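Could you please consider the sequence and fold appended to this message?
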Amino acid sequence: MGVTSYYSFGGEIIGEETGGVRRDYLTDALGSVTATVTGAGVVENTYRYKPYGEQLTKTGTGNDPKPKWLGTVGYRNSNTKFCDSYVRARHYGSSLGRWNSKDPIGIINETSYYIYVSNSPILVIDPSGLIPKIVCPCRTEGDVDHCA
């Protein structure tokens, strides 16, 4: 296996190339890879996820990209049982829907150092592992309640 080079646009990873073979990512609004497409435009794999990141389904037999659930915004699979993602500053476990380490900068609108995005994983992401970011268009910064 060769070196993998990643392509990005606007701070998000949009594809990769390994050994001269290019693969582009199709994504959802949160930044999760929902499909991989070959350089010829053929859909290679598709992915669906549960709200806290566990993979629900996969179709296709191609190699999986390293970035999958919220992968284009910086989440990386770590392939361990209870901390399956690494998010720049700390590890996250999708089976528990919690961070696996204490928030290093303190609690931000939380009651626990380990709560993931104020328990709103379909409205909020945390690309740094430190500061949640709202992706729901009907809310503003600092308001992480559910969309009405």
About this structure: DSSP finds no helices and twelve strands in the chain. The longest strand covers residues 12-18. The radius of gyration is 16 Å. Residues 4-72 form one domain.
